[in-house]
Amino acid sequence: MRPDIDRLIDWESFYQKFIPSLKTKGQELIGLCPFHNDRSPSLYINRKTGQYDCKACSATGNAWTFLEEHAGLSKDEAKAYLLNAAGASAGKKRKITQLTLEEYAAAKKLPMEELKKHGLVNEKNKLVIPYKDETGLEVAKRFRHSMRGSVKFSWVKGASVLPYGLWRLSVAREKGYIVLVEGESDCHTLWHYDIPALGAPGADTFAAKHAALLGGLTVYVFKEPDAGGETFVKKVCSSLLAVAFSGKAYCMQLPGVKDPSELHIRDESGFLDKWNTALKMATLLDLEALGAVAGEVIPGQPFIPRKPDNWYYSADGVFGYDSEGSEKKICPVPVILTKLLLDVDNETEKVELAFRRSGGWRKVITERSTLFQRTKITGLADTGLPVSSENAKDLVRYLFDMEAANMGFLPMAQSVSRLGWIGKDKFLPGVGEGIVLDIDSKRSMAKLANGFSENGNFEDWKTAIARHIRRNPIARLMLAGSFASPLLSLIGHRNFILHVWGASRGGKTAALKAALSAWGHPDSIMVSFNTTMVGLERTCEFMSALPVGVDERQLAGDRQEYLDKLTYAVACGQGKVRGAKSGGIQNRGNWNLIVLTTGEESLSGDTSHAGVKTRALELYGVPIPDERCAREVHTLVSEHYGFAGPEFIRRFIALLKIKPQVLEQDFKHVLGVLEKSYPQIIHSHLSYFAVCAVADFYASQWLWGCSEEQAKLEMTEMIMAGIKSASTSQEEADYAQKALDFTLGWIASNSEYFKDNGSTTQQYGFFKPSGECCIVPEVFKDALRKAGLSVSLVLKEFAERGWIETETAGSGKATYSVRCYWKNSRVRMIVFTNCREFEDAF
Hints:
Blueprint: H1 5-8, H2 11-16, E1 23-25, E2 28-31, E3 43-46, E4 52-54, E5 60-61, H3 63-69, H4 75-85, H5 101-108, H6 112-117, E6 121-123, E7 126-132, E8 138-144, E9 153-155, H7 169-175, E10 177-182, H8 184-192, E11 197-200, H9 208-211, E12 218-222, H10 227-242, E13 249-252, H11 260-266, H12 271-280, E14 283-284, H13 287-294, E15 311-314, E16 317-321, E17 327-331, E18 335-343, E19 349-357, E20 360-367, H14 368-371, H15 392-405, E21 412-416, E22 420-422, E23 426-428, E24 435-437, H16 446-451, H17 458-468, H18 473-484, H19 488-491, E25 496-501, H20 508-516, H21 522-525, E26 526-528, H22 533-543, E27 548-551, H23 560-572, E28 594-599, H24 610-615, E29 616-620, H25 627-639, H26 644-658, H27 662-677, H28 683-704, H29 708-726, H30 735-749, E30 765-767, E31 773-775, H31 777-786, H32 791-800, E32 807-808, E33 814-815, E34 818-822, E35 825-832, H33 836-841
Parallel strand pairs: 10-11, 10-12, 12-13, 18-21, 21-24, 25-28, 25-29, 26-27, 27-28
Antiparallel strand pairs: 1-2, 2-3, 3-4, 4-5, 6-7, 7-8, 8-9, 13-14, 15-16, 16-17, 18-19, 19-20, 22-23, 30-31, 31-35, 32-33, 34-35
Domain Zinc finger CHC2-type: 29-83
Organism: Anaeroselena agilis
Keywords: Metal-binding, Zinc, Zinc-finger
């Protein structure tokens, strides 16, 4: 190639044809790498030389290698293209264009109209081949990019690999037989001759679930004359054997050609004669023998990926070849890729790998940036993977090549690193089919995650709960709160705390365990007040929509400020902004749930702000009066658990599909009734009662078989008893009034310090003849602080209600202290306007 080609070609224009996402940054071009599933631009291209380097997958090269590996050109074709781009002549030139339906039809010698009937269409720079199920519904797409080259096919993101031609199985059943081939073009050829065919998009992709569709048919497996053909036959036999296929299966070949498509291209007129001859010469397959060979995998292997070139794995480890062709072991245990995971919350992709150690397979989910960088993959050594700085480079290359060899074949699954709602119709635990819970990224939550399981007998649980929990209003409200937690986000309701407190031996812990047992093992999913704020935030973030159970409020001691902050943090629904180790900030978790707490003391204190009272519904009483019953509940919910919550969610999903607005309408109706009946109760508390009432109403019908009228009656009785247990009025929650009560009591108890008796005793202030009480600001503020009251909030509330005098400063802003004459000096004091009753006593 001419040495000045770098100067003659505009590399930005050159690469822009292939990578539309390119942007200029100084002397480099940056865009999405076409050699891997790139989500953030990681491909860097030198604008002067045309050399590229991917920072994510380590793909490197120049324009020549790019044309060969990405565009699928031969060396001569790449050279011709580059010379042409540089303005030189190189004999035969090839203009790079998209693969079109017209080109494909011409190459395969098939009528375009037939291909269109199969759904093939042009799309940008590729040919789209739709995959349909038996009903004709499109379920996946495969793209064909070129007729030759290393990158010919790819799948639409998230597609499941399945046989091609399922929608034509009815034709096969009419004829009584089916021909299994590799790829779509052989299907197109055989369908052209009215021969029933089903195509596997890869030699080792045919599975038992596909074989189950072939019952009642005679199967002909077409074997191509290469190693892939051998693999295909063995894989089909293994799959047929797995489903106890009772029909006959034959192996057939076409002498002198690779596949049906090639025979049609070479000899269209003689195709049927040669095909029918090959069909008669087909040999009966021994499924037992060939299936056993195909099944020769490592015991317990979770997935059988395609082996990448120049690498292989066995029970003895992973092996590769050095530059001289000599075999070398790069890992002492077998390591494979098993799955790709797409996080539904942040759309990042992870990879699941498995390795065999100590007689079993271990699975690890990790970020792509960890798996495919030799400086980071060593971090997986803590999982037991034998990787170190010595073999990291080879292991990264092996895994990267394995992914490339299995592009489109590795299963793709959605994942989350939390519980709760996934969209509108999936929920973890219990209603999340196809969703993978990625707890590798949150290993501290493993105990919680493992606690959400089913055990025992659902009917026994329902019977015991009906006898010991649903007959006691406070215990029943706790259970209703457990069911109500996932409903908050559906009606746009805020988070809140349901706190049950009272004397010991009242069955509070037993009732809490019963409420949590609707979802899983209560001891595993319950936490205590002996935790940090960060720990509770992390728990709420992971639970997302599920109820969080926190037992033994007394463990927090007299840390009222901590409890107040905890209440606000839970109600906020979002964690604090925190820095990440790698720089920047961590992702902030969100939650929308109910926290169920118990204890022998109230959650709020005398100094708690009104906001604490409005965010926590506190019930005083005995959830389970009979101590013997409480012991039975403890035992029962440790043996039977995990059924009710998922069943409740399944029923709600089904209901909302029919009546999307019913939950919101029911909630508003109940809340409206409560507002009219109990106007003196804090509105937020009535809202909490309403959402619990709706949950109880539906749970009664769906889980315990109550009629609608009976469910309404029991719901009403529960709420009436609950309101009596709470009985927090608007006045009781008034923070300013509590602060004023404290102030008046403080003034009365310190009356001697408000008299001027001529002594040297410290004086806090004085009373004006008109009755106002004047207090030295710092003395009063110090008294508020010692009482645990907010100085700024108290003074602001007092000023707004006219309980203290204010002045307007030069800036126009009101000040909470005013100038007074005291002891022949002009000083600033806090002046109370309604303390005459104490002045008269002094």
